[in-house]
TrEMBL record:
Occurrences of domain TonB-dependent receptor plug (ranges): 56-167
Keywords of this entry: Cell outer membrane, Ion transport, Iron, Iron transport, Membrane, Receptor, Signal, TonB box, Transmembrane, Transmembrane beta strand, Transport
Name of the protein described by the UniProt record: Outer membrane receptor protein involved in Fe transport
Assigned protein family: Belongs to the TonB-dependent receptor family.
Membrane topology recorded in Swiss-Prot or TrEMBL: Multi-pass membrane protein
Primary location class: membrane
Xref: InterPro entries: Beta-barrel_TonB, Beta-barrel_TonB_sf, Plug_dom, Plug_dom_sf, TonB-dep_rcpt-like
Classification of source organism: Bacteria, Pseudomonadati, Pseudomonadota, Gammaproteobacteria, Lysobacterales
Highest taxon above the source species: Bacteria
Location of this chain's protein in the cell: Cell outer membrane
Pfam family, one: TonB_dep_Rec_b-barrel
Molecular function per GO: siderophore uptake transmembrane transporter activity
Residues covered by the TonB-dependent receptor-like beta-barrel domain: 305-786
GO CC aspect terms: cell outer membrane
Amino acid sequence: MHTILLRRAVRMALVSPFAFALAFPAFAQDSAPEKKTTDMDNVVVTARSGTETRTKAETSYSVTTIDEDRLRMQAPTSVTEAMKSVPGFWVESSGGEASGNIRARGIPVDGYGSVNLLEDGIPVQHDPALGYLNADQAFRLDETIERIEVVRGGPSSVFYSNAPAGAINFIPRQVGDTPDGLIKYTVGNYSLNRLDFWYGTPVGGGWKLGVGGFWRQDNGVRSPGFDANKGGQLRANLSRDLDGGHVSFDVKHMDDKVALYLGIPMRTNASGDIRPVPGFNGNYGTLAGPDTQHVMMKEGDGSLYNFDNSEGTHVKRTQLTFKFDHDLGGDWKLAESMRYSTTDTQRNGVFPNTLQSATSFLAAQNKYLSGYPGATGYQLRYVDNPSQIYNNANQNGNGLVVVGGLRGVTMPVDEFINDTRVLRKFDIGGQSHDVTFGYYYARFNQDFDRYSSSVLMDAKDNAQLLDLVAVDANGRPVGTLTDHGVYRYGYEWEHASGTSTTNAFYLSDEWQVTDKLRIDGGARWEKVNVAGNTELKQTVNQGTFATSTILTGNGQFVHYDQSFDKLGWTLGANYQFDGHQGIFARYTPTFRLPSLSSYITSPTATPIIQTMKLAEAGWKYSDRFADLYATAFYTKYNNVSFSNYVFNLNGSASTAQTGYADTKTYGLELEGTLYPSSLFDVQFNATLQQPEYKGLRYTEVVAGNPVLRDYQDNQLIRVPKVSYRIVPGVNLMDGKLRLQVSFEHEGKRYVDTANSVVLPAYNVIGASARYDATQQLSLFLYADNITNSLGLTEGNPRAGELASSDAGANTFIARPLLGRSFRLAAMYRF
């Protein structure tokens, strides 16, 4: 039934938004649910500023609100996972609790490079895509968060830096006039144990105190053989209402580590289906394991790099926030937001760089036999059991070898953000102007160190390390090319530091023309200065094959100091027919300035300002029976740069393939909830789009000659043309029991811009239940990926994202969804 409803909704919305409203006459029956308010009555606080509040009905841009109940029923395991209910966003959370990817409205940027992540209206970090440090790594969801507001496009880029495609605002709980709190304990079938709590109370003198946080430990859905996720966070908030204002102080400390899940060996079988290679569990397997948990890697200066994969992505962060609102007199108001944070991140991972048969791998090594007198060939042998010879034809049922990268990245960041707004409402000739003048300042210092070594592994769950052993005609070892499984030490090395300083001025005006018509606009001028030093590299030879091409520093630094500035603006209008229905439209030319990430490992880079034009027009309808939204959008993205690095087994990354392109995307977003009766409802969101590259050309060196590649009109990588999510739910026992099922469809996508490697369409089914045993005690059950879908979310970026070297391969690296898992939670309110 839900599929028929969605198809009907899409068809009607494409014909006419008003026909969409008339498509559901059954909602006018007397059996309607007891829905006391409409969704459009919700107050919106994200991507706007003014002396008065605005509801969704009065908002001239696309915004999705995820309230407390919906958030608890979805129970997302990551920030990225929470965005699955947002149309216009393609999200990928198969990498674990952090390091997710969001692509919004045709902006071809991975990670959080096109949307900013906010907490209580302030950026978690100024640049949410700070090379190897996405904003979702520095933020965790817990019960201190009450709801989420997600703005797509619109005026986000006027009020926030680095938010051309939108802003995701996690809004904390507010303390009431009486003490209350909750405690929630969650267990899962992957050894999950998690405790969340929150408590708020008045403490005298008008002050209110809120405290909360979480602690969690588990093996991960893809268990590496040790704790994959472990840690938590604590926060405390002290606030007080003032005469004509409000003040709050918030401190939060996080010490948490999460696993970074990467691609696994996959194969296309005889029937054309993509499955894991024999001997590998596609739903629960990971190449990371005890053999690669702890490796002392030799460095070029003679020291040892302590690679500890049990650290995963380990973030230690302390965040201090100050907010102050006050009436200045004469109808002027001041709003001040300030945040200081220190974030220390160690990000370790076992990266699958290449996958090939043992036979072809060994054949390619014959050129090194001359270094071992008497050797006639090579064998692969297990590091922990040198007498065990690898079966080239059928070891683990596949006979495959993975060249993996043990990569460690260290990134300490100190950051200060300040946002000052002065607001006033002017009444002129029966019309009003709610005006804001703002100044934004952000400064952060970042260090960056990276070191990687390549290792040989077999292709199985918790892969084991292999040595490459030279043998004589009788199969007796005469030498070992590798060093305890390490093929090449130091194929990556970086040492850099930098400072980014941003100043921005912005203004906005919400002009109430009539009771029904409001026009709002704004502009932002922003300037960023990036300065720093990056150490140059040299190659050293320490006398063995594994240590013969180690990259290390040469003691010389390249200094950079560059500034960029740009002006962007937005103009929108909202016409409200009545309290139930309205239309809006908006046009926004905006930009993303080069950042410290553009330089910190490439000090001689010449980045350009990325500009884009976004347009949207939408219709919204809400009553006791339905909340319905339909938005058509257009995005043109200019001058996005592409650098393609293909892993080279015998050295560092190959020569970069670099190009510039534009993208154009037309699309339609649908979202809403239908309430046929008090017993049944259906939530849905869908995105139909045509995301294309325009002018994507780059030059690749082939056999010493330049070859032009042209991928005009190709589909954006990893972005589907059709995706939707439907969540039907039933309410039983007078609302004490709620059951709901989620069905998610992601259409066909591509690994690379050449569209040479397909990521097939897939479906995912999940379920959740809530039972209110008493007014205080609620029980929750969650089931994720019930059918163990092997939907592929990405291919192997190390094979190249412009033109993948996996094109035409029967066996390859790809990252599927996490396997089926279950969680059970009990929450007690007091």
